[in-house]
Amino acid sequence: MGLKEGTRAARLAKVGGLVGLVGVGATGCSTEEVLRFGWPVAVTPQAEAMRELWTWSVVAALAVGVIVWGLILWSIAFHRKKSEELPRQVAYNLPLELVLLVVPTIIVAVLFYFTAVTQNYVTDKSKTPDVTVDVIAFQWNWEFQYPQHKTETSNLPVSTVGSSGEIPLLVVPQGKSIRFNLRSTDVIHSFFVPEFHFKRDVFPEPEKNNQDNAFQIDQIDRTGSFVGRCAELCGVYHAVMNFEVRALTPDDFDRYIELRKSANPVTGQPYTAAEALTEMNCGELCTPHAVTTKPFDTDRTVREASGGEK
């Protein structure tokens, strides 16, 4: 009887392993994609730290799940009722109860430790940043100010403001530490860039709401364009309150800031973000308008009542 049960268990294990391999292979995902478990590709060291915490937390959860599922299936397959005789009882089994108490406690303690370490790293602002950006949210768009850089004509901070027809570009340097100071002029919004794996609520008068309104990243690892969103329901047009992070090389960013500080000879006013990027003419990264998202079409006549386009 014991030999038959062992053979059956081995067969079930082989079938289960084969099904698992086929399931993973059928997804068509690479090993790196599988280990991200659906998270976006990180572009900052803080984001990668959170991704690693997520990966190993899921692995730990799956390991516990496999053990629990295995015990359940083992009980179903091999310990079905065979007679009216009660099986051996294990109530008041002190060693077993200690295992069931100690093992979950260790799991929770380990997860808490790594969560606290990652959180402290992600929220750390002890280092002096290379660039500071003041992020101002309002219904239903964004303004980005660079308090370290003033325009030559008005001595006001270089600023980019979005409109209903233009997605604002948050231009920052790749490879430099950046501090974001967040503030709202009306209701609560939320600053969210999926590739940062991080979002923070944007409060009106954060100091009065006891909110930490700033966060910092060590660097953006690569140049590129990354969509940003408001992640807090803030009113009618919340869903279209997007922006774009444009990460340039340090030299291109310095050139961009110099243009933003100086006056456009045609208009006599400081270069706008679009004008500065057009003037730089540095390829795809200097596209003057957002490439990851677009303004919301508010023309209600382009669709019929059925939802189809005319």
From TrEMBL:
Names of required cofactors: Cu cation
Q: Which reaction does it catalyse?
A: 4 Fe(II)-[cytochrome c] + O2 + 8 H(+)(in) = 4 Fe(III)-[cytochrome c] + 2 H2O + 4 H(+)(out)
Domain of life per record: Bacteria
What Pfam families does the annotation carry? COX2, COX2_TM
Q: What is its EC number?
A: 7.1.1.9
Per UniProt, subcellular location reads as: Cell membrane; Membrane
Keywords annotated in UniProt: Copper, Electron transport, Membrane, Metal-binding, Respiratory chain, Translocase, Transmembrane, Transmembrane helix, Transport
> How does this chain sit within the bilayer?
Multi-pass membrane protein
Record domain Cytochrome oxidase subunit II copper A binding: where: 128-259
Co-factor note (free text): Binds a copper A center.
Transmembrane domains' residue ranges: 55-78, 90-114
State the coiled-coil residue ranges: none
Q: Which PANTHER family match?
A: CYTOCHROME C OXIDASE SUBUNIT 2 (PTHR22888:SF9), CYTOCHROME C OXIDASE, SUBUNIT II (PTHR22888)
Q: Which family does it belong to?
A: Belongs to the cytochrome c oxidase subunit 2 family.
Function comment:
Subunits I and II form the functional core of the enzyme complex. Electrons originating in cytochrome c are transferred via heme a and Cu(A) to the binuclear center formed by heme a3 and Cu(B).
Instruction: Give the matching NCBIfam families.
Output: CoxB
Protein name from the UniProt record:
Cytochrome c oxidase subunit 2
**Lineage of producing organism:** Bacteria, Bacillati, Actinomycetota, Actinomycetes, Pseudonocardiales
